[in-house]
Amino acid sequence: MEYVGLQQQITSNNRKSILLLFGFPSILLLGLYVVLIFLSTGNTNEAFLSATPYVLGFTGVWFLIAYFGHSRMINYATGAKSLERKENMRVYNLTENLCMSVGMKIPILRIIESTALNAFASGLNEKNHTVTLTRGIIDKLDDDELEGVIAHELMHIRNNDVRLLIISIVFVGIFSFILQLAFRSFLFGGGRSRKKDGKGGAGAIIVILIASAVAYLISMVFKFALSRKREYLADAGAAEMTKNPLGLANALRKISGNSKIETIKNDDVKEMFIENGPGKNASSLFSGIRNIFSTHPPIEKRITLLEQF
What's the CA angle centered on 172, arms 11 and 284, to 5 degrees? Predict the structure, then answer.
């Protein structure tokens, strides 16, 4: 595998992430335009311009709900508790040293009482930035390895990756909601409609169903691609912050196949963790397709890149 310099990797990943991020509203508006082409009886462009403010307003409300409910939803889904300083001075010392080295505010530290090896960052501003670690990852990693993991999560905070993740979740959620609404309308109402002109009734619902299904699929691919790029970027940033890329590489080796927290079922929350892979025993069949729909890059590739720094 060809070596890619740290700064080049950071620049490339940031550029690709921005392009992917702009892809979400583009898909939403493109889907709206396609639907209007089939359903509008007048000027499609005028109908599009009239409908766009309502669509963007609906999206804005959805964003506000996600923004203010984010931390509460994560704490409920993970069962994380505050990490007490007196009993965990090692974790606090590692975190504080890393934060001081880059001049950032020390985040809240929380813990999930699980033997699994995993960690994640959350929070949308300095008041609620949080790094959460499992009991397993604290107990089973040495100082260099744990420092690499904490640095990875601090980079997610510095890079505003949590905000990017929420944006992707919101857009995918909108497409999912529209798809479910169209599907239920087709099952319970559209099939009984007497209209056959394709501009209303069953025809309209079918157009919306197809357009929303395609938009949902594309948005999922964009979401997963964005998530993978940010994981690579956080790995690279952690290597630069600690000056010890092998620390994180060795941590990922221990995490691989031991990261699953059985009590966490929410897929959006799982996406936030440092590892969310299929595990050591996963079949390699259709691995290429599986990687496209994975929230994280293959852990072996992440280790290889870290060892090249």
Answer: 70
* 153 catalytically annotated: yes
Residue that is written with structure tokens 């690279």 in the block:
236
pLDDT tens digits along 178-194: 888 878 877 776 555 44
Beta carbons within 10 angstroms of residue 142's beta carbon = 11
Closest CA relative to residue 229, chosen from 144, 172, 130, 159: 159
pLDDT tens sequence across 264-287: 988 888 889 999 875 444 444 455
What would the two tokens of residue 80 be?
A: 């994380």
Q: What is the DSSP string of 73-106?
A: HHHHHH--EE--TTT-HHHHHHHHHHHHHHT-PP
- 257 DSSP 8-state letter: T
Domain ranges of the chain: 6-277+285-308
> Which of 147, 153, 231, 275 is an active site residue?
153
Q: In what order do the strands lie in the sheet with 81-82?
A: 81-82, 108-112, 130-134, 119-122
User: For residues 217 and 291, what is the distance between their CA atoms, to the nearest angstrom?
Assistant: 15
Which residue type, as a one-letter code, is found at position 60?
A: G
* Cα–Cα distance, 174 to 151 (Å, whole number): 33
Model pTM score? 0.78
pLDDT digits 0-9 by tens, 127-154: 889 999 999 999 999 999 999 999 999 9
Closest CA to 294 of 229, 249, 215: 229
